[in-house]
């Protein structure tokens, strides 16, 4: 009797589950949106096994057109490379699309005390963003030029040693060390010495955090397949995080110590941390409308970042500042060694703007801002390699109609950045080729605002863009002022990429430096 009862309950649950799934899997059919056929349990997740997300998106774009839907387990994701549709979502209707995509083993950002700006939503995001924005103003950037310059000089010492010995070396590895030391120093006064110490603890831990983003695929898969059991996956994830050594905890502890020391010493440094500790939040200064979200005036006017927010933000800047900028620099060097004519043209521009040596940094910022060809090379590299493309996504917070498509509340919209960047209608023929002239001032004026998205789009676009650009351009100028570069035999041409938190060169960028 009991067995029969249990079988009946089991069957009932299965039928309910089956019906629910079937209904969910009809989402895109009901919306009249094409897409790959989903599997009942996995949705379309199996398509990503052994294949990067961005390449799968490209493949589907060829088959289903510029707007299609797929399923992560039962969760529908709308993918689009339609720049008009994306403009409406990321810019015009931001009020309905102010949240990012949340992952299956991630605590609800609205409940998470440790949430940082990247995942925060609504009013909390607005408060965090307006505290941080001034840290990236032109005047702040000018103030940190000497610190960046000091770190680039350390990089030049290593390049010089390799050039003297005539040996090739991995430029990507050196750039990771440079960008980590720079953000640690400019951001928090943390003395990371990864350029001078091979196994610097901070570097090792940052690398491990990024590497860990590709671990535990089974748990992620289960989370995607059965989002209803979200709390269970989080609990397992947290247990796993605590039983093995966790580089995030090491970094978090380091940040907490720095924050404590700074508060105690009342030290007045010019850096990101100081700004976060002292700035006032003015709710009317940032008029971005994020809709009907709780706005507790008392808390907000005091501006204060909680200790948890503060250490989460520091960790975010450390990781974001190091990973993305170094990868961009690596791709620039790759393009310069495989396109020697571009390298030469850029060197001519550098020699023109910096006829003497480059040790007086006082005018650096304004000179670099006037270097047009450098800007063109920077932009074209990021067109060819939009390395953070997978995070350019938004969640719909309230059902609304965009460009004739009714998007239900909760649906994720993913920008298909690679297809946009390789679309001949937007960029002309030969989008596989590296042609900096696509970015002449004239051509930039007439381009669609969503055609170039390496830093995302709309009010949630990358906050660190100026810092990345300044550091990246300074490094390129100083390297090419003193050296020419040629590819090593070990360099992959065309370059092979792998996808983790970002899309990075699989085997680094090995090359040889020749003193000019
Ligand atoms: C070339 C280097 C970089 C690239 C390609 C890059 C790319 C991106 C992208 C694609 C986004 C998502 C934007 C969106 O969803 O619309 C983003 C957001 C963000 N980036 Fe960057 N980034 C870079 C450098 C940096 C640096 C140096 C920092 C800080 C030190 C930084 C901090 C952030 C933060 C905090 C966000 C979240 C912004 C928000 O949600 O309001 N990034 N970045």
TrEMBL record:
The keyword Heme applies. Its EC number is 5.3.99.5. Its cofactor is heme. The keyword GTP-binding does not apply. Signal peptide: none annotated. The chain crosses the membrane at residues 37-57, 218-240. Keywords: Heme, Iron, Isomerase, Membrane, Metal-binding, Monooxygenase, Oxidoreductase, Transmembrane, Transmembrane helix. GO terms for molecular function: heme binding; iron ion binding; oxidoreductase activity, acting on paired donors, with incorporation or reduction of molecular oxygen; steroid hydroxylase activity; thromboxane-A synthase activity. It is an enzyme of class 5 (isomerase). Pfam families: p450 (PF00067). InterPro entries: Cyt_P450, Cyt_P450_CS, Cyt_P450_E_grp-I, Cyt_P450_sf, Cytochrome_P450_3A. Gene3D superfamilies: Cytochrome P450. Heme binds at residue 462. Cytochromes P450 are a group of heme-thiolate monooxygenases. They oxidize a variety of structurally unrelated compounds, including steroids, fatty acids, and xenobiotics. Belongs to the cytochrome P450 family. This is TBXAS1. It comes from Mytilus coruscus (Sea mussel).
